[in-house]
TrEMBL record:
InterPro entries recorded: Flavoprotein-like_sf, FMN_Rdtase-like_dom, NAD(P)H-dep_FMN_reductase
Keywords annotated in UniProt: Flavoprotein, FMN, Oxidoreductase
Sample GO molecular function, one term: oxidoreductase activity
Protein name per its UniProtKB record: NAD(P)H-dependent oxidoreductase
Keyword field contains Calcium: no
Domain spans labelled NADPH-dependent FMN reductase-like: 1-143
Pfam families registered for this protein in UniProt: FMN_red
Highest taxon of source: Bacteria
Coiled coil residues, start to end: none
SUPFAM superfamilies xref list: Flavoproteins
């Protein structure tokens, strides 16, 4: 199983801190999974100009290909101006419309306050739905107060991240079994 952790910002530390913990849990719980981190702060992305994703070069092509090859994507994003960061939106713009078909996508959000908790429902979920993702229904919303010295200090948040990872892997396995059963019906 191929899993991509997509840290969806090119500034700040909270999203990356949460992503590091999330992927640590995933690696410890599912050691056979091939888990890759893509931190948009560490790659040189160009803006989408309408080409097919495989026509790009460098980091832009690598990011698109890793996402297209993944069985699951764990997206971590901060809230900027009550929306997702432009660098994360650009990743979606690089991909074809059905890029997330048959992929399980789970999400956590870091935000300065609870006032932005609906951003995910109004900004990110419609994009994921449009791109045909199987979305893990429960996401994790992490506020500024949940961090201290670049660590998550709220035990409830840690528990919810653990559960998010578990739900992600369970959904990948469930959808794989459903597809296999459907293909077996054809009998050839």
């Amino acid at each position: 199983m191929k899993v991509v952790g997509l840290s969806g910002s090119n500034v700040g530390t909270k999203t990356r801190t949460a992503m590091d913990y999330t992927l640590q849990v995933a690696r410890e719980s599912y050691p056979d999974a091939e888990i890759t981190l893509i931190d948009l702060a560490e790659v040189e992305m160009i803006f989408s100009d309408g080409r097919n994703y495989f026509d790009y070069e460098g980091d832009t092509k690598m990011v698109a290909e890793k996402i297209m090859e993944a069985d699951a994507i764990i997206i971590g994003t901060p809230v900027f101006q009550a929306s997702i960061p432009a660098v994360l939106k650009n990743v979606f713009d690089l991909l074809p419309q059905n890029a997330l078909r048959d992929k399980v996508v789970s999400v956590f959000v870091t935000a300065g306050s609870s006032k932005h908790y609906l951003m995910i429902e109004h900004q990110l979920m419609p994009i994921l739905t449009y791109m045909k993702a199987h979305i893990v229904p429960t996401y994790v919303f992490i506020e500024e107060v949940d961090f201290y010295r670049k660590e998550i200090v709220n035990d409830d948040i840690l528990f919810r991240i653990d559960r998010l990872v578990e739900d992600t892997f369970i959904m990948v396995d469930a959808y794989r079994k459903i597809r296999e059963a459907k293909e077996a019906e054809y009998g050839f």
